[in-house]
Amino acid sequence: MEPLSFENKLDVSSVYNTMGALKQELGKVIVGQEEAVEFLLAGVLADGHILLEGVPGVAKTLTAKLLARCIDVNFSRIQFTPDLMPSDVMGTNIYNPKTTDFEFRKGPVFGNIILIDEINRAPAKTQAALFEVMEERKITIDGQSYEMEPPFLVVATQNPVEHEGTYQLPEAQLDRFAFKLNIHYPELEDEVEILRRHQNKTSMHELIGQVNKVLSREELQNLRALVRQVTVDENILKYIAQIVNATRDNPDLYLGASPRASVTLLNTSKALATLRSRDFVTPDDVVHLAPSVLRHRIQLTPEKEMEGATPEEVIEQIIKDIEVPR
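^ thats the sequence. predicted structure below, dont judge the formating
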């Protein structure tokens, strides 16, 4: 196999420095979630939606709110509930007696960073309403299309241990999330630091007040354009395709990943490379991102589930079986 070519160098220092400053602002409040924050920033740069899963109290909602605070854009928060209707999210046409005409009243989804709390609590009809807006960045109401103003990013949270009053997200919707990030309990040392910060501040509001805006809407769009210019070696492209393709004929999987997963893995690998001050993608970038890109897009066979296997274990084995490009 031919060695990777790293010609046509691109200056990615603006991405590295700006996102480093953003990470530093998040670190004023978020403790012990360095990997999750890095993935979150990669998702922002790659223009991909993010699903955060974790038990209550591990700062899923707080992380999303702080991200919106660091970027000078419009922020909306939607609490999903079993009685939530699509019009409660998207908006609806309201009759105006003064003009004797219908006027469209925008719903909370019209924003730049949209936090959807407990996304798995809404029924299928409301979930389906998100399909178009998450993929095409527009919605259609009564035959009229409304474009979302860029940037448009959905950060959704869900609780993996609470099942009463929840609905499983459709595969088509899960496929629209670039990442599914598992947020774990903090380590002991990190939890001590959390307590130390709370002891020195009177409230969470005071802690959040320390976080400053780092990035404007225009600057974010410029950084995304720079990330898109990162070139990826042909061997890496083939490596990404091999990993995703291997999920489709794996005997342990009932459902494999779609071509959207390949594109997502490519785009997020570019973003991760720039976050690490590189203008080229390495196989390590792909391997590091693959579990978070693929875990929610594949389904284990019933037999494998009964054995207690996890999607991550299958993904790890797939990666081991594929030759790494040199």
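The domain at 11-216 is CATH 3.40.50.300 (Rossmann fold).
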